[in-house]
Amino acid sequence: SNPVKEAAEKVTGALRGDSDDARGAIPGRPAPEPPQVDEPTEVRPPLPPKPDQRGPATMSPTGEATGVDQDVVAQRDAYLTTAQGARLYDTDHSLKAGERGPTLLQDHHLREKITHFDHERIPERVVHARGAAAHGVFQGYGTAASITKAAFLGKDVETQVFVRFSTVLGSRGSADTVRDTRGFATKFYTHEGTFDLVGNNIPVFFIQDAIKFPDIIHAGKPHPDREIPQAQSAHDTFWDFVTLHTEATHHTLWNMSDRGIPRSYRMMEGFGVHTFRLVNAEGGTTLAKFHWKPKLGVHSQVWEEAQITGGMDPDFHRRDLADAIEAGAYPQWELGVQVFPDNPEQVFEGIDLLDPTNLVPEELAPVQPIGLLTLNANPTNYFAETEQVAFHPGHLVPGIDITDDPLLTGRLFSYLDTQITRLGGPNFGQLPINRPHAPVNDMLRDGMHQTAVHSGTAPYKPNSLDGGCPFMAGEDVSAYVEVPQAVAAGRKVRQAPASFSDHFSQPRRFWLSMTPVEREHIIAAYTFELNKCYEQAIKERALKVLANIDPQLCQEVATGLGLPAPEPTVPLASVEPSPALSQIGKTWPTDGRIIGIVAGADGDLAGLRAVRQAVLDADMVPLVIAPAGGKLDVGQGEPVTVQRTFATARSIEFDAILLAGTPQAGADAFGARDAKADELSTVTTDPRALLLVSEAYRHGKAIGGWSGALPVLEAAGVPDLAPGVVLGDDGGEVLRTITGLLAKHRVWERFPAVA
Ligand code: HDD
Which residues bind heme (predicted)? Predict the structure, then answer.
């Protein structure tokens, strides 16, 4: 039997009015009326296939087949060629009339090389320009089967993914560690079509309606006159907008919290933000919010650390992600859902689910795990993959539908539109990174950069010339069918519902859920950012907003600005805190955390070697820091390789610091207290090493040492009995205690807490 012929006959029959089922009738809906055909045309069988129109088999210039895949257009053969495949004998000299003569216009290689170079850049993303990405795999748990029929969530189903993390405001070359929201966009190449979950590391958004997106972005981007500041929210236009437009208060508060300065992409939560509508196999619907939970926990930098990182290593997050994957420490997240009944109001526990400035506390709706994401491969080429990947919240698969959140609806327009400019035409879906892994059989034709060689003569429906192909699918064979959701009747209005007008109770819940340390960081962030504004009126307006969140927050920031704290203009909401919103108080795996081991040329190399191995055995990364590069070798066995020098290392890179110390006859960790000044080690006298230790201390990092490390601490001004400072005679024991401290991420007791 020939399935194409059978299907063609079905369609022919349908045109004659024989049956309904081939016209793509959707269960539960009336079948479309058959076209009125007075005298049915006899349908021709499909045309014979055309000869293969792909490129010819690749041959070497001497006529042998090279055996290289015809679809791969990169780096074939051993010799440098032109774009047309002509081998080149020189690419370093223009063709000239004599060695000192003029360059000739006929030099095709020169013109081709320069012209291509002139066009190498494409417009950067209008937002989220700065990013880093990785390939991976998603494995469904099968736990979501009762709420969604999405096949990729089925038990043990594995789906290839590509994930791009980003900052929002900065240009493509800006620093990774600025205070900003982070993008967390995932492309699932499912066999039912591509699903994109285009989320952020913050569960709420600045605006409730997409029509305001240009406004918030114009306000956050650099000022239009001088184009400064880059990748910052600490400037007048940002604070002008978010204080005039109080629905931005919740997202702004998250940005000012530690969530705005993540430690690593690997240690960020992700959120789909909007409420989605899930559909199960029986057609039952549920409202849901998507969450990504990192296996390594949610961690942040402290503000001073983030600022230093911006200068010392602007690629910090990009490097961290790539290094971890290269080392085999694959980052993992669990995908989870909060689910809510699909009631006509789309409200849960008084929270409007269509308002994207709202979150639902996990204590009210727990996050239920439905699958595991593992990032296990770095991109091969940044431009081809990370830069050209194109996400779209409208890329959905059967089982996942949208709601009428007015922010989401506008996004459904924006993403396709922006890709057409950014990627130069409508065929960006054919780029390898964007190509679905499900078969594509569309009727989209031609356009800039068309790389498909479409066969057939009838790219339209209905047709008889291509035998009626391709056919419409029903839900039984995974057609994407929108939920026939009732549309709220009403007048055409440019208005938000009354339920969108509470802008302060959710921010207040976030504030009340923070620990004292986290509150202190928030106060410092507001104080810093507002002190960077020039306009007095903006600072005063910002304080009025803060007064409506919490009087203590308002008062502390007002003190920092040297202004009086205003009274609230709305009654303070009475809300329960949500402990799940805090990052502090839990312990997390320490896999992949980075331990800096400081050693002078006169340090305890035997101890260092043993501790270095113990760090590796604990699945963490040891980096040896010494006065100069090369090897440490004082004749105590195998030399130790130095990874960082005092000139290149800054505390920001390390999650904890170990001091290998100075062995002195009979000295234990503390006994070196009596050392005379001229016996002090290179570590104790080098200001760069001391800065590293004192910064690590100030940033709440665990510090350990053995074998006479005390003078280093003393010289760096670190009290030896301070919390998280561990001295002992046995480096291995010190490391074990340090690892325990690292599981809490930082030594929080060191931060002066707000009462
Ligand atoms: Fe957006 C990119 C996330 C609202 C318009 N957005 C973009 C990216 C992420 C998000 C992660 C980068 C994707 C990548 O790595 O390539 N955006 C969000 C979230 C939002 C949101 C979580 C709110 C819940 N975005 C939003 C609105 C609009 C846009 C309201 C416009 C009306 N976003 C865009 C865009 C971008 C984009 C202009 C720029 C580059 C791109 O799409 O591909 O279309």
Answer: 125, 164, 213, 411, 415, 422
